[in-house]
């Protein structure tokens, strides 16, 4: 049964036509088959093997860059899809009861932030500390 190779997803023709594989690259020319007999020369073979390794390194690097550029926008699309899924299936998520939330807040120690001195008087000073949970705490210091 004959089929169009550009429609079969596992073929090189499909991958190149769909933009999933590099089509224009100088390293791809080295993979072409050459039927030219060459007399054996040890130095020639050594330099050829080094060149083949270097070409494969360059090709791998270019393929990584190509893949990274091709997948650049997927992270945002995936986040949007995840947000949409959570929004649609909100009813399946466990609900946190108010009593449990209050118990968690009570177990956490409030972080106190010091606010600069306000309302300086002769004998007494009043400081206000802001609490993380909200609100302000007045602290009286006597000299």
Structural notes for this entry:
By secondary structure, this protein is α+β, with helices and mostly antiparallel strands. Helix content is 42%, strand content 15%. It is built from four helices and four strands. The protein has helices at residues 12-17, 42-70, 74-88, 98-107; strands spanning 112-114, 118-120, 124-131, 136-142. Strands 1, 2, 3 and 4 form a four-stranded antiparallel β-sheet that branches. The longest helix is centred in the middle third of the chain and has 29 residues, at 42-70. The radius of gyration is 34 Å and the shape is elongated. The N and C termini lie far apart (99 Å).
Radius of gyration, whole Å: 34 Å
Structural class: alpha+beta
Helix content: 40-55%
Series of secondary-structure elements, N-terminal to C-terminal:
HHHHEEEE
How much of the polypeptide forms β-strand, as a percent range? Answer: 5-15%
Mean pLDDT: 80
Q: How many DSSP H or I helices? A: 4
Distance between the termini: 99 Å
**What's the β-strand tally?**
4
What general form does the structure show? elongated
Characterize the biggest β-sheet: 4 strands, antiparallel
Entry keywords:
four-stranded antiparallel sheet; alpha+beta; 42% helix; 143 residues
How is this fold's topology laid out?
Blueprint: H1 12-17, H2 42-70, H3 74-88, H4 98-107, E1 112-114, E2 118-120, E3 124-131, E4 136-142
Antiparallel strand pairs: 1-3, 2-3, 3-4
Give a brief description.
The chain is of the alpha+beta class and 143 residues long. Helix content is 42%, strand content 15%.
